[in-house]
Amino acid sequence: MQIRFLTGLLCGILCGGMAHADAPTPEPLTNPLTLKQALTYADDVHPDIELAKARLSMSQAQADAARAETGLEISGQIMPQYVQRTASVLDYNTDHQAHLLITKRLYDFGASEARREAADKAVASSSLDFLDVRQKRRIEIMRQYFAVLLADMRYMVDNEAMAAAYVTYDRIRERHQLGQISEVDLAASETRYREFLVRRNKSQIEQRASRQRLANALNRPGDLPDKLERPALNGNDRKIPEFESLLKTVLLSNPDVQRLRQDVEAAEAALVAAQKKYGPTLDAELQTSYWERVTLARDNVRAALNLRIPIYQGGRDQADMAQMQAHLQSKQAELKKAEYDMRQKLLDLVQQLELLKVEQQTARTRSDYRDLYLDRSRALYEMEAEVTLGDAMTRMTEAQWRAAKVEFDLAIGWARLDAMRATLITEPNKKK
Question: Exposed (0-12), middle (13-18) or buried (19+): which is 156, by Cβ within 10 Å?
């Protein structure tokens, strides 16, 4: 036993090692990485995707099992036996026999049909759940992709602010050496510079952290993206649909709501199946047999119809129906709550998009103003009339960061709206 156990353990280790070695290595990320390319990784092997696939496979297997309940059933029975007889004219004691039984459920008064319907509805529910997971994966990738772009822009803002603060501090330190600046002013300038330095260093750390989160979202934790292309996001200029018409579309097509509707229908079918579970059944049976002991009367072939009529189940039928009724009520309540929640989520999202549209115009105006302010600061710097070039560059970069953040928030908002309408996100920058 020990040798057999060790042999099995060794084989398991070797097979596991071979399976691990044969596992496909994902292709490295493209450099620079585009958002469209990043979204193509959304359906790759990932824990969320694998869990959704497993739930779908489980429901499909249960549906196959429900359809197989009324299928043809064939079984064999072999009985080699030795008997000791008290009185026999035969001179041998063997009584071997073999039987082949074929059974087919002909009718069960709708019980199996109700179970098949419940299983098919469960498959439809799992399919919608899989779509929902795929959409959430795409939105998460978009969030992390935009987070990397914003982290890079934030670093530029904080780096320029730190550089401007250092120039000011260096100038004040020179004047302090000449006795023109007090210790207090020097300390204040140095403190301000070091605060900007800390902020710049935090932004630098966030650059790597955001890339690690994106790599995790892409299921490539060891492959941190280097350069990312900023998408055009032309779809942000779409007109926001009217809320009431949008609500009707969402309530009819939203994967979450649709999934719960399928769950309700599955629960209704399961209740019908529970009501008919202990009902009559009609089976056809065909049996052929081989008997070694020869007698005057044997059933070598037997064909029969078997009508089974249950009379009393000890309360199990009532318990099953009560359980299915409670399950149905639970799913109906979940559906109602989901419809209420979806109405509120949609209203919040539409209002957020409307607010972001206003912020979008403000951000564009701010960026134009900062461009003009930078041009004027350059002219004043060249005339040595005023030294504000560093501050102007910082403010311009920050205006660009704010404008980008609004555009990215809008893209995420539109992606969420598309997901609510059961549209799989492939190109978020495409006008629709």
Answer: middle
